[in-house]
Each structure stands twice: as C-alpha cells, then as structure tokens.
Amino acid sequence: VLDSQYGMYVWPCAVVLAQYLWAHRRSLPGKRVLEIGAGVSLPGVVAARCGAQVILSDSEELPQCLQSCRSSCLMNRLPHVPVLGLTWGRVSPELLSLAPIDIILGSDVFFDPKDFEDILTTIYFLLEKNPHAQFWTTYQVRSADWSVEALLHKWKLKSIHVPLHSFGADKEHLASSSMPGRHTIEMMIISLAQSEGT
Fold first, then answer.
1. Interhelix angle for 42-49 vs 63-75, to 10°?
2. Residue 197 lies inside a defined structural domain of this protein
C-alpha cells in the first residue's frame, strides 16, 4: 500500500535515471541540476558525485522526504548539497529565487495523474526561466489510460523518447523490482517547444 512513505524507497525509475546520468557523466561537471520529487535522491546524488552542482527538492508538505534527501547527501559525503521544499504547481519564494539551471531531474514523478498538470506547470515555469534547460524524466507505465502528451501540448512542451538500450538500462536486473508484476520503465527528455522560425 502506497502512503506517505513512497518517497522513502528507491524505485526502479530512480535506478534507470541514475544509469542515464552515469552514462553521461562526462558532460555533468559544472552543470547546474535540480532534482524534483527527489525522495531518497539517487539521481541527484549520482549527478553530484559526477561533478554537477545539484539542488535537491521535494514537497514542502513532506518533511520526511526532505529529511530523506538530507540523509542521502550525508551518507554520500555531499553535506553541502542544498535541499529545498518545492511543491509542484505552487509559485513559492524558493521557486522564484532558484539560480539558473541546466537540467531538471525527475524519477517516477508521473505517478498520480492528479499531479501531472501541477508537475508540468512547475516544469514549464523552470524552462521558461531557463530556455536551454531540459527535464530528464523516467516513469513507470502503470496504465494505458493516461498520458502526458495532451498536457505537454497545452504547456508548449515537447518530449523526446530515450530508448533504455541506448544507455545500457534495458537489463532485467537494472530496473527490475521485487514488487509483483511487470515494470515497464520509459525515459523522456522534455524541453520547450520552440515556435516556428526561432
């Protein structure tokens, strides 16, 4: 049963996104990275260990998730990585005062369809402020009934599907889980949809 503890577990999507970061580790030093919905922060920790300037964030309403972010940093000898409370869909002083970023990370943030628009509202705000940034996200296909495509169009965002085999994340042991059922993980890179002629 999923409850407030869901942000305290390393889900398969986090492992896949961490693998993508590891595969692109040579491009990370000096990059400014924000992980949203970080929870235990595996992708953000990997990015920081690879030389990126990382900020971790989770909902300001989930203090146990923010503490989990801090604990992950301490366990991985990253005591200076900032942890912010950022709630999706809410314009807060923390969101407004964020320094420029190059990459936004989000593993399994597309979990509950009621949150999708709030997530993409926040992503759109961040990409408008940082037009050359990208949102790297992994998600588990849980239902054929939902998709973010219509919301991407609404928020003038585009996505590129990234095949897992292109970065060695299609191995059964990498994204497999002890949870029952088959777990299909997908990855996409979301950016601003550029208007014609720009």
1. 30
2. no
Q: In this structure, what CATH number is given to the domain that contains residue 21? A: 3.40.50.150
Helix (H, G, I), strand (E, B) or coil at 135: strand
User: Could you tell me the pTM of the whole model?
Assistant: 0.87
Torsion of CA 103, 192, 120, 139, to 10 degrees: -60
Number of domains in the chain: 1
Containing structural domain, residue 80? 12-192
Taking only the tens place, the pLDDT of each residue in 156-193 is 999 999 998 898 887 666 655 554 445 688 899 999 98
- Asked if the structure places residue 2 within a domain, the reply is no
Q: Which of 27-36, 135-144, 145-154, 181-190 has the highest mean pLDDT?
A: 27-36
**Could you tell me how far CA 43 lies from the centroid of its own chain?**
8
CA atoms in the 13 A half-sphere facing the CB of 173: 0
pLDDT digits (tens, 9 = 90+) for 184-193: 888 999 999 8
